[in-house]
Amino acid sequence: MRTVPHWIDGAETPGGGARRSTVFDPATGEQQAEVVLAEQADVDRAVASAVTAGLSWAQSSLSARTRVLFRFRELVDAAADELAELVSSEHGKVVSDARGEVQRGLEVVEFACGIPQLLKGDYSDQVSADVDSFSFRQPLGVVAGITPFNFPVMVPMWMHPVAIACGNVFVLKPSERDPSAALAVARLWQQAGLPDGVFSVVQGDKVAVDTLLDHPDVAAVSFVGSTPIARYVHQRAGAAGKRVQALGGAKNHAVVLPDADMAHTAAQLTAAAYGSAGQRCMAVSATVAVGDAADALVQALAAQADAVVLGPGRDAGSDMGPVITAAARDRVVAMVDSGEREGAQVVVDGRGRSVAGHEGGFFVGPTLLDGVTPDMEVYREEVFGPVHVVLRVDTLDEAIALVNANPYGNGTAVFTADGESARRFQRGVTVGMIGVNVPIPVPMAYYSFGGWKDSLFGDRHVHGPEGVSFYTRGKVVTARWPHVARPVTASMQFPTS
Ligand code: NAD
């Protein structure tokens, strides 16, 4: 049985603990590896190695850091297919989708290659006689990333390229369900010339997470995962005095107005609902049909859902793979059962679907529910599976009110041919990322990614300018270099100019 180790101080290590967790092949349901689970001493070792490496990394020149980033960019690009296969084998998503996640991660590396430009400060000449003021930003030190299973390459890459470019050292605690991609990325950093200890991986569960959250040498924590754990991480790391950004779960609504192009909209929503088997924090899981958009839309969505090819992620013919575990599959099925019990119509039923030759795989077929109301569990909970629910309202204002009443605020989209409606929507919703005729509005790497309300705890979003801000702290210097002899006395009054 393959064992997935930690990566500490530039080398693989099994660590000192005996605990292990199973890594499945979701397409077959069989175990394919085991991953070591860190004990506190393993995390302490990784952080100690990071502290030492950080002393020189923080002092390295911007040019030296940029050269490592450019080399890392080339290596990730060259390894993209290999990384995608690895992601697909442990996560279950189709390889082309995994390739897309690697590409979106790579774009953050490309953004971080511009770090000399991004770290430029401000300068004000002659703020007073012979006095100049300027600002610059410095790294925090050791920063930790704790990441979910659903994007094992991209989500960590939202964090570590920016953190490292800013001069920090980074300890990643990836999901224990698909842990191998983090190690592959660690090897690429080393090949790129990153000094040992600047990027480490501790595999593990709550023990590793809690040790990082409490560790006095960890200055900041970036977390992405479910809302209950995001809230917990924010509170615990915040209580320990750390800077925290904790991104949580989602319920992303697509609002469809009657003037939308229904064929285009249905195709976009189907891809956004069932891509990666719905296991995306930006998946469209709830469509809000406005006025007489509903019947034609549901009909088109049903036809499209029926056409989705369910199969193993490694098969080029599959559109949609399995979900991550048997427990995830059972939870998704239970959610659909509850929706049906509470009065929703099951228009397309993915329960009980299996794939020939892969009967043990964790498959659920695309599922479409109509007549869903906000009080139903299948709407209130994040399902995180291939379940798309349709709610019906009469007006755009009702749709906006529905979106805003939801505790999550990650992403949303409006489909319409009318600019005024789109503008009213984008200004009125309490959501962080908004699409206009775009179903999964994931911002480009040079903007920042993050939701509102229960989808993000903390005040800064990831990557882009807010990522640079999160991983650095500012200084403002007020300096006097008089041309003439320096004054030998100073006024006791508060300085004014
Ligand atoms: P999760 O919350 O179960 O796990 C995330 C991380 O937290 C993992 O590294 C895990 O080991 C750790 N963890 C789990 N339970 C813990 C506990 N009790 N104490 C301490 N640490 C713990 O999330 P997941 O199932 O891996 O990922 C799916 C979730 O992530 C969904 O809710 C999805 O919406 C969310 N997500 C959000 C975004 C976003 O940008 N907002 C992006 C991707 C995923």
UniProtKB/TrEMBL annotation:
Biological processes per GO annotation: L-valine catabolic process; thymine catabolic process
Protein keywords: NAD, Oxidoreductase
Region of interest called Disordered, as start-end residue ranges on this chain: 1-20
UniProt cross-references to Pfam families, sorted A to Z: Aldedh (PF00171)
InterPro entries: Ald_DH/histidinol_DH (IPR016161), Ald_DH_C (IPR016163), Ald_DH_CS_CYS (IPR016160), Ald_DH_N (IPR016162), Aldehyde_DH_dom (IPR015590), MeMal-semiAld_DH (IPR010061)
Enzyme class: oxidoreductase
Protein's name in the database: methylmalonate-semialdehyde dehydrogenase (CoA acylating)
